[in-house]
Structures are given as structure tokens and as C-alpha cells.
Amino acid sequence: MKFLVQRVLFYLFTAWAAITINFFIPRMIPGDPVKSLLARFQGQMSTDAIDSLYVLFGLDKNASVWSQYIDYWKQLFQGDLGLSFTAFPSPVSEVIGDALPWTVALVGITTIISFFIGTSLGVLAGWRRGSWIDGLLPATTFLSSVPYFWLGLLAIYLLAGPDSFFPSSGGYDGAYVPAWDQYFIPSAIQHSLLPALTILISSVSGWILSMRNMMVTVAAEDYITVAHAKGLSDRRVALSYAARNALLPNVSGFALSLGFIVGGTLLVEIVFSYPGLGFLLFRAVGAKDYPLMQGIFLVITISVLVANLIADIAYLLLDPRTRKEG
Q: What positions does the domain ABC transmembrane type-1 occupy (predicted)?
């Protein structure tokens, strides 16, 4: 319990530091975001309207930095992330809310599937060295080193085309309106197949390699020899003794992967023009939409911290040593 309390306090401090940095970064960037917004409207705004924009974006020149910082925290507790420049006057939370389900559905599902498939195959490859599964290591090593976006480009070149079943870009057919019906959902699934396949192939290979290497290391430990000497079945030794201990490093990697689900696989979403959070961040950087970038960075940071906290809780359940005092 003491370990868990310490970790929670650590993550709360980290969240405070991340939010504070997130507050100061836009104010340290050269330039005036309000003037950039005015340029889009060709300066057709009154002085009062311009002053109101500075207040709306939390850049009131008459207020001190400390008061702006306090107001920023108040807005966060109210769920207010500011207004987006590119989608003005839409709030940042609404823009992120529209893109977030796409990324969670695509990257989240593929990450979880790849973890379970890769971990299972890694256990078999490490426990049955010399088998046909272990012979796939050269291919998995190559695939794990190939960037996501390169596989995406290759998939578009080989599988997409005018008469192909696989669309090369977008999240759904433009003829449909996003809704939970029998027309939109199949279209969304069809458009997600190629980017999902790209992520799955590359990430599965990484999980296989890491789990296989840990299984080989654990299999040489004394407690594995003792378990065999006790007459336990080979399956029980492999799953209850070897795999349980070899899984611990993968739990940390899986937690980080879950955290970065929110950020999405940026280059994959760019290659396929997929309407997720990663593609939204790319557009926000290009348009210098500081409030939107700030909101996306904040959501990604909090997601990574929550995922790491979940990993620590999983460690408590999997490793009894973390539950011991002293």
C-alpha cells in the first residue's frame, strides 16, 4: 500500500509539472497568436474585439503571469482547454473530442491485439527454442525495425487502388455522415483496415522479440529447475513460473503503449490521412494553432501518466516482492 501511495503522489507531482510546462511553452514561443488569427480575418476587427480575444486565449496583457496561471488551472478543472485558432470559435475540447475516438478505436484496438498475439508467440518461441516459431525470429527482427510509415506507404502501393477493396486515405466514405448505423460503421471499418494492418505487423514483431528474450533468460533461473524437479507439468511451469516473471518488463512497455494510444501513430495517420489525434496534431503544428497543440500535449501527458499508474498496479498483482515492506 505504501508503494502505491508513493507512486500516486509521484504521478500527481509529474502531472502538475507537465501542466505547468504546458502553460509556459506557448508564452515562450516568439510571435503573437492573436495577430496570426487576425491575419486570417484580414484585420477586420475592432479594438474591443481584439482585446476580448486576448482575454479568451488567456493572454490578457493587463494580467500578470501568475494570475493567468491561476486562471489556467481554473479552466482545466472546468474542462476548458481554450479556443482553437483553426476551428475558431470551436473550443479545443470539442475539436479533440471529435478526433480522439478515431485514434482510440484504431491504435487502441491494434495495440491490445498486437500485445496479446506477440506476447503469446514470444512465450512459445522462448520456451520451445529451435521450433518453427523460433525460426521466425529473423523475419520479426526485420519487421520490428521497419518504420510504421514505410509499411503504410508499401501497403498503399501494393493493396490500394481504384478497384481495390482497401481505401488509401480518410476515415470513412465522404458520402456518409458519422453515425452509429449500418452504413457508416462498415465504411469506417473498411477505411481502418490498412492502417491497422500496418501498425499490427510492426508492433507484433516487437512484442515477440522482447517476450522471447525474457523467456530465454527466465528459463535458466534456479526456480524453473526446482519447478521441473517437483514434477510439475511443462505447461504449468511455462505459464505460472516462467511466463509470469518474464511478462513484467512487457507490462511496462504495454503501459507506455497504452499511454501513447491517445497520441496515435502520427506518421501512420498522416500517410493515410486518418482523422485521428495524431493527424490533428500535425495540422495544428502547420497552422500554429497553439491552444490546440497545448490541449493535445496535455491529453497525451495525462494518458501516459494514467497508463503508468495502471502498470504499477499490475506490478503489485504480478510481483509479490512489490507488496513487501523493507
A: 100-311
